[in-house]
TrEMBL record:
It comes from Jimgerdemannia flammicorona. Belongs to the CAND family. Residues 336-374, 449-473 are annotated as: Disordered. It holds the Pfam family TPR_CAND1. Keywords: Repeat, Ubl conjugation pathway. Residues 1113-1275 form the TATA-binding protein interacting (TIP20) domain. PANTHER family: TIP120. GO terms for biological process: SCF complex assembly. This is Armadillo-type protein.
Length: 1305
């Protein structure tokens, strides 16, 4: 390597590289140093080839081992390769040497590289050394001791380099890059003294003549401030403020200072927020500088950063920044546009008349070019600033629609493409923010998922109106902008710019999704754009990828457009829409084909609409216009062609089947000649494992169709029913759900054609599903059994033999509730109506397990008793002949002193269920017998007796209500149970449709209840409050003012009862008394600031109920209620007391329950009133909850996950603040003496935190959330790494299943 011949030196170096690449090759310490010195010498070799090879070899030195243990002599290895630099000569970091060297040698290498970087004679050597140093810093692991040692060694030399006034421009540039990397990666290990030296060395460079150095200095300062203490940071900001004030005449300096301030907001926003009141006026002042567009751009970029990262401090300035951004959104000094100036006063008719002139102006604008004009950067920055405000200020949506939306629409015609796309994207952000905060958000999601509730299917073309939508609501304000938006956007959609057109269609899709329609009167404007976008011009063939994306976006928009508008709105445009859509099905790109099939499905519903009335549950078939019949045939032809292709993509296969199903279900009567071929293909696909799920859903839709009938349909059903029944054995749950739905429809529509063998086979397959193992499949299975019973009453013997034993076991399950219970009751009603002789058998089968039980305790769970009682009551109500005798039997059971507790309990529940629907006054002693049971020892029997008395009273109020009132007055020991009976009566009576008021009894009950609300027992007060609330609903105009009067009561028990009573009024969905309640709501809920702890807790519970049931009542007063709510989330030291338990002391937090109620209320508000919440103030309390007690932490995790979905921009800016509380939760160790429940509770909390982190991960970016990104890496490398990966995988699977459901629904 030291030979005079350059060829020999070259070959020797190459051979050494080859040897070093072998894992078995090792260097001894003495040899290692010699080799390194030789290579360092070769870096200065006169031969370019040798020098290049030496660099290539030497950069392998930088691959130090990650797992170095100082003192153990382990080898070093850590770095990867960098790409080419300086053409062929400087291929860097691809060599293997440092895989073999130790840390001591690496330190020597760093020293020599520093020397090379500092020398100014050989520029190429200096550049290579600088890149080498930077690569060392980049590649050393963050937590490695090597990094700290290298940093300590190299940092002083780097500071000396940048402090040298004689250092060249290139040296300064390279040194600043290295310093920035050191601060970013190892800044936490650098001492504050060294940080001060760095800061003092960097600040003068802000005035360096070359812009590139100033920019790198700004980056270096930004990375540095993450690790400086408050004293250094304050010193830096004060220095910047001084410079900002005195540099008004130096535009270059101002640009740099503004950039530096923006960098501080990105890297240390919380600390900079304290100075914003001083910084902002200066930034705004310099934004208005007349002659410097670059400075103006920097100022707007800084404002955008402030909006995103200092939200609380920026709140007072938002309106001013909006105005400033709007001013510069249209800033274009080199292009005159008179219409822009008069935009605000322009009338709609005038605008339509000027359309042609505007098009000409736009064409002229496209031809305009000025290389020196950078005003477009100002407009782009203004647009981005507005986007930041929109994305983080959901509570200002109405104001933004008044001020910002018209201006954005006016700038759709922006002449610079990149700015135009940014403006469109900003409007999309506005639409998405509206969707997130829209009141009928759930309905829109249902529309997105292709549910049956679409507007066209409902047979109405008017948008849905909810109580909370007013003239000033964001959605209504958006509707008002639609005409102008449509005209402006339609011109851009026919422009030459593919990116503009694609973004424009995205905007339109978001628009119709938010409004659930809205373009009925403007569809014609977009027809030319749709046609041109779906037709690939020959000139566009070199942009195949771009064109494909445009097509897909156009088709996605069309699908949503068809879904959300009435069919009649499209009929006059079908001649132009159908050909390009149908042609897209034949596109070579499978994604376009798949999306085109989905559009065809919606197009078929437009061509032949079938309206569904959810009230009468009937379908109305619209006649098919003869002009549209050829389109049906064309869609059928291309669909069959695709179905016949064996090598089609899976997505295309599934959607072609769906399209065929739509054709047959919407226009089957027009394709009678094609039935055999179509149904044969469906039967073939049904037997294919890959496509059977989609085919089952398709058969369900066809069987439900009122227009697809005939012999071929019957033949297909007879063949398919057994095949579908077999699918119930499969493990795929989604397939089983679809199969059950299909079987129910097939049996209902074509049951009379099925053979007895098919019914027997069906019941055999259904039998295993009649259990509580899957409560989603259970109601579907029971409903299918009912359909079989109706279609073929002769199946009763088989049902009794195979199904009933499973049903009788099922009623004993405590899990049978909701839909499963409703289906079970329907089954028993069908059984007794079909064969009344089986009544005794059915009753005996239901009560058998209880009647034969002689134990003192209840034989099964309370829920099971309730299920059995409801089933027996259903049998009675559907068999009038047996009703009276059954009541008498149960009455004897409760009279019999020898009856077991279980029998009495069931008998009382059953009498209550029957008595609610049937007048039992004919059984004269029934109420007396029940009252006697109020004194038995068993608490279960007493509660059942109260239930029975209250429900029996509903059947005959005039007879039984006076008895209950009298008993309450005269029997203080029974009062609690009698109040429960009264609660049952009032609740059940108020639920009856068309029920009259309790009449003259109301006043007496009202007085009686308030007499009892002073009880010391909270249970009694709760029952009284529920009675008062339900009673208020019977006559709100009378009783609401009465409740209001008692808010001023001196008794906390009375105040608590009143506010709880109001809670129970919210559960009634009727709106007839809302106008009466609305003005009183603040007065009721202001009890959140009551002096009594319990009253505050009850008031929070009431607010939660209002937010959940009737959010529109509180939306406009949230600005009053939220500060009170937030106050209750604060940990109050005065409520924490120390309790001595023997030798131990234990902290008791009396405010915990209140805080829990407050956080529960916040969680509800996040779902129902998001657009009225100032998101950053809300997030501050959520972040506080991350450090609270166990239950509150779990709620905070849930809210963080929800916020990540609805306000991602805001959450991203605060993500680093969540690191410490989340880390504390994950690192918490329970005591070794902790019991099993405490360990499991902590484990569940850790899983909750990991689930939250898994959602937040999607928002994390190293540049914007460095601390959270580092936190993630620590989790993945920790003992929780495997569990975290599992949680992420589960979340991904859920999303994937959701996507599959959307595609196949």
């Amino acid at each position: 390597m030291s030979n005079e011949d350059s060829d020999i030196r070259y070959m020797a170096t190459a051979d050494l590289i080859t040897e070093l690449q072998k894992d078995s090759f090792n260097l001894e310490d003495s040899t290692e140093k010699k080799v390194i010195d030789a290579v360092l010498t070769l870096m200065k070799d006169k031969s370019g080839e040798v020098q290049n090879l030496a660099v290539k070899w030497y950069n392998g030195v930088l691959h130090a081992r990650q797992n170095l243990c100082p003192g153990h002599g382990k080898q070093i290895r850590c770095f990867a390769a960098l790409p080419s630099l300086f053409n062929f000569k400087t291929r860097l970091l691809n060599g293997p040497l440092v895989k073999k060297i130790k840390e001591a040698q690496l330190q020597d290498v760093v020293d020599k590289l520093c020397n090379f970087a500092a020398q100014q004679e050989v520029e190429e050597l200096r550049d290579i050394a600088s890149i080498g140093l930077k690569t060392i810093i980049v590649e050393i692991p963050v937590n490695s001791p090597i990094g700290n040692n290298v940093t300590k060694r190299v940092l002083p030399r780097l500071i000396t380099l940048i402090s040298n006034n004689k250092a060249t421009y290139e040296v300064q540039m390279d040194t600043l890059d290295i310093l920035a990397e050191i601060s970013a990666r190892f800044g936490s290990s650098v001492s504050q003294d060294m940080n001060k030296q760095q800061q003092n060395a960097l600040l003068p460079l802000l005035g360096y003549p070359r812009p590139a150095v100033r920019k790198r200095t700004t980056v270096a300062i930004g990375n540095l401030v993450m690790h400086t203490n408050d004293e250094l940071f304050d010193e830096l900001v004060k220095r910047l403020l001084v410079e900002l004030n005195k540099s008004a005449d130096s535009k270059e300096m101002l640009r740099t200072l503004i950039q530096c301030v923006g960098a501080l907001s990105r890297f240390s926003a919380p600390r900079l927020g304290a100075y914003l009141s001083q910084i902002l006026p200066l930034v705004i002042k310099y934004t208005k500088t007349d002659d410097d567009d670059e400075l103006r751009e920097n100022c707007l970029q800084a404002l955008e950063s402030f909006v995103l990262r200092c939200p609380t401090e920026m709140t007072p300035y938002i309106t001013q920044i909006v105005q400033l951004s709007l001013e510069y959104l249209k800033y274009d000094p080199n292009y005159a546009d008179d219409e822009e100036e008069e935009e605000g006063d322009e009338g709609e008719n005038e605008a339509m008349e000027q359309d042609n002139d505007e098009e000409d102006e736009d064409e002229d604008a496209d031809d305009y070019s000025d290389d020196d004009d950078i005003s477009w950067k100002v407009r782009r920055s203004a647009s981005k600033t507005l986007s930041a405000i929109i994305g983080t200020r959901g509570e200002l949506l109405s104001q933004l629609y008044h001020q910002v939306a018209p201006a954005l629409i006016g700038r759709f015609k922006e002449r610079e493409e990149s700015v135009r796309v940014d403006v469109l994207q900003t409007f999309i952000v506005l639409l998405r923010q509206t969707l997130v905060t829209a009141i009928d958000f759930t309905h829109n999601v249902d529309m997105e998922m292709g549910g049956e509730n679409s507007k066209r299917r409902r047979g109405t073309g008017s948008p849905s109106v909810v109580p909370m939508e007013t003239e000033e609501s964001p959605k209504q304000l958006l509707r008002n902008q639609v005409p102008r938006l449509s005209r402006a956007l339609s011109k851009q959609l026919v422009s030459k710019s593919t990116q503009t057109r694609q973004t424009g269609f995205t905007l339109l899709r978001e628009l119709v999704t938010v409004l659930n329609g809205g373009l009925e009167n403007h569809i014609g404007l977009f027809i030319p754009a749709i046609e041109s976008s779906l037709s690939s011009a020959a000139a566009d063939q070199h942009h195949i990828g771009t064109t494909s994306n445009l097509k897909i976006e156009t088709l996605t928009f069309l699908r949503q457009l068809f879904k959300t508008h009435p069919a009649v709105a499209f009929h006059k445009y079908l001649r132009r829409l159908c050909p390009p859509i149908i042609s897209s099905v034949q596109d070579k790109f499978y994604k376009i084909t798949a999306e085109a099939f989905l559009v065809c499905i919606e197009l078929i519903k437009v061509i032949r609409p079938i309206n569904y009335d959810s009230v009468s549950q009937t379908q109305t078939v619209q006649p098919l216009n003869p002009e549209f019949k050829p389109y049906i045939a064309q869609i059928y032809t291309v669909t069959m062609q695709r179905l016949a292709t064996s090598d089609a993509d899976q997505e295309v296969k599934e959607r072609s089947i769906m399209c065929l199903g739509a054709l047959l279900s919407q226009a089957g009567d027009q394709l009678v000649a094609e039935h055999r071929a179509a149904f044969n293909i469906l039967l073939e696909r049904l037997r294919n494992e890959i496509t059977r799920l989609t085919t089952v859903k398709t058969l369900t839709a066809i069987a439900n169709s009122p227009v697809c009938t005939g012999e071929e349909v019957k033949r297909t059903v007879l063949e398919a029913v057994d095949d579908v029944a077999v699918l119930l054995r499969k493990s795929n749950r989604q397939l089983k759900v679809a199969s059950l739905g299909c079987l129910e429809v097939l049996v209902k529509r074509y049951g009379k054609f099925l053979t007895p063998a098919s019914f027997t086979n069906l019941l055999t397959e259904l039998k295993p599903l009649i259990s509580d193992a899957d409560l989603h499949l259970l109601p579907l299975s029971l409903t299918t059994v009912v359909s079989i019973l109706h279609a073929n009453p002769g199946s009763i013997p088989i049902i009794k033999q195979d199904v009933l034993p499973s049903v009788f076991r099922l009623v004993q399950s405590p899990l049978v509730q909701g839909a499963a219970l409703d289906s079970l009751l329907t089954l028993f009603a069908a059984l007794v109506r079909t064969n009344p002789q089986d009544y005794t058998l059915l009753v005996a089968g239901l009560i058998g397990p209880v009647a034969n039980d002689k134990q003192v305790q209840l034989a099964v769970s309370k829920q099971s008793y309730s299920t059995i009682a409801q089933c027996v009551a259903t049998l009675c109500l559907n068999s009038e002949a047996n009703c009276s005798s059954t009541v008498s039997d149960f009455e004897r059971q409760i009279e019999d002193t020898n009856s077991s507790e279980s029998v009495k309990y069931l008998s009382l529940l059953t009498l209550g269920e029957i008595g609610r629907k049937v007048d039992l006054s004919g059984h004269a002693k029934v109420h007396t017998t029940i009252l006697v049971l109020f004194s038995v020892p068993s608490e279960e029997v007493k509660s059942a007796a109260a239930f029975a008395l209250g429900n029996i009273s509903v059947g005959n109020i005039p007879k039984y209500l006076p008895i209950i009132i009298s008993e309450i007055k005269q029997q203080p020991k029974r009062r609690y149970l009698l109040l429960h009976a009264l609660k049952e009566l009032i609740t059940r009576h108020s639920q009856k449709e068309g029920s009259n008021s309790l009449g003259t009894y109301s006043d007496e009950i009202w007085v009686l209840l308030f007499d009892k609300c002073e009880s010391d027992e909270e249970g009694t007060r709760n029952v009284v409050a529920e009675c008062l609330g339900k009673l208020t609903l019977t006559n709100p105009y009378k009783f609401l003012p009465e409740l209001q009067k008692r808010l001023q009561s001196s008794s906390p028990q009375t105040r608590g009862t009143v506010v709880t009573a109001i809670k129970y009024t919210f559960t009634d969905q009727a709106q007839n008394y809302d106008d009466l309640l609305r003005p009183l709501i603040v007065e009721f809920l202001s009890l959140m600031k009551d002096t009594d702890l319990n009253v505050r807790r009850l008031s929070l519970s009431t607010l939660n109920s209002a937010a959940h049931n009737k959010p529109y009542l509180i939306r406009d007063v949230l600005n009053t209620l939220l500060p009170l709510l937030y106050q209750e989330t604060v940990v109050k030291e005065e409520l924490i007391r120390m309790v001595e338990m023997g030798p131990f002391k234990h902290k008791v937090d009396d405010g915990l329950e209140i805080r829990k109620s407050a956080f529960e209320c916040m969680y509800t508000l996040l779902d129902s009133c998001l657009d009225k919440i100032e998101i950053f103030g809300f997030m501050d309390r959520v972040f506080a909850g991350l450090s609270d007690q166990h239950d509150i932490k779990v709620l905070a995790h849930l809210m963080m996950m929800r916020l990540a979905n609805v306000a991602p921009t805001a959450v991203t800016q605060k993500l680093d603040d969540a690191v410490e509380p989340l880390k504390a939760t994950l690192n918490y160790k329970v005591k070794q003496t902790a019991v099993k429940q405490e360990v499991e509770k902590n484990q569940e909390l850790v899983r909750s935190a990991l689930r939250c982190i898994a959602v937040l991960t999607k928002l994390s970016e190293p540049a914007t959330t460095p601390r959270f990104d580092t936190f993630l890496k620590e989790i993945r490398a920790s003992t929780l790494g495997d569990e975290y990966k599992t949680i992420v995988a589960d979340a991904d699977n859920k999303e994937r299943r959701g996507a599959d459901y959307m595609d196949l629904s």
